């Protein structure tokens, strides 16, 4: 695996934990970190020994592990951007963000503090979000004279509905973890000390299912989301056919009929 300056990668028992680590800037995303993310995600996607990826934020410079998930894109880098540079920066992020969304592994954001701007946006590019009770989510860009540019105007509206998304983006008001749960922005809220264990327990449960089937289900959900229902259901039927032609399908169904545990191995 590549060596990273702003990321830390640990792999154990089919679960990768990728930690964004820029303690001096509350893990803000600069170009270097976006490029490293792209390299890391490309490498992880190619690994057969990783079934689930957990993305989290490292401690701040005082060692506080629950200060910040990601406090946004790096404002110091963006301050002098021309329009062309800003667009290039947005495109630079969209490559790893789409990887998180579409890679064959399931991606879980373990949100351990501030998820602001690009931080909220990168959590929304993941399949699932689990928040520690102190976490907060917001899109403060309009207060800086810009707009969310890493997919926030699109993914937030898709997750919480247009009205709530517009309120958050127009007012810059953050929501706390409980409110994020109430509006469907996060899947679970847990005590700080339970955050990683909860994310790993969910990851472990996902790993215990047919990994290839999970990845095909992920593709079906993602691909169908923006289609009309008729084409989406047809696409699902095609992917059902793909899943049906696997070892795991024969093994999974035979094991059920023989009343034994299935040995699912496809990925
Ligand atoms: N970028 C750069 N540095 C940051 C960022 C950031 N987003 N956030 C925090 N830092 C730095 C601070 O400058 C500070 O550095 P230093 O110690 O050298 O002064 C250090 O991190 C610690 O931060 P604070 O002292 O401010 O810590 P506080 O506990 O007082 O406050 C906050 C924490 C509330 C999180 C505060 O730091 C804050 O408001 N940060 C900025 C949050 C924000 O506005 N995020 C959105 C940024 S814009 C964005 O994400 C756009 C994404 C799309 C771009 C698309 C381009 C095409």
From TrEMBL:
<protein>
    <submittedName>
        <fullName>Enoyl-CoA hydratase/isomerase family protein</fullName>
    </submittedName>
</protein>
<dbReference type="Pfam" id="PF00378">
    <property type="entry name" value="ECH_1"/>
</dbReference>
<comment type="similarity">
    <text>Belongs to the enoyl-CoA hydratase/isomerase family.</text>
</comment>
<dbReference type="InterPro" id="IPR001753">
    <property type="entry name" value="Enoyl-CoA_hydra/iso"/>
</dbReference>
<dbReference type="InterPro" id="IPR018376">
    <property type="entry name" value="Enoyl-CoA_hyd/isom_CS"/>
</dbReference>
<dbReference type="InterPro" id="IPR029045">
    <property type="entry name" value="ClpP/crotonase-like_dom_sf"/>
</dbReference>
<dbReference type="InterPro" id="IPR014748">
    <property type="entry name" value="Enoyl-CoA_hydra_C"/>
</dbReference>
<keyword id="KW-0456">Lyase</keyword>
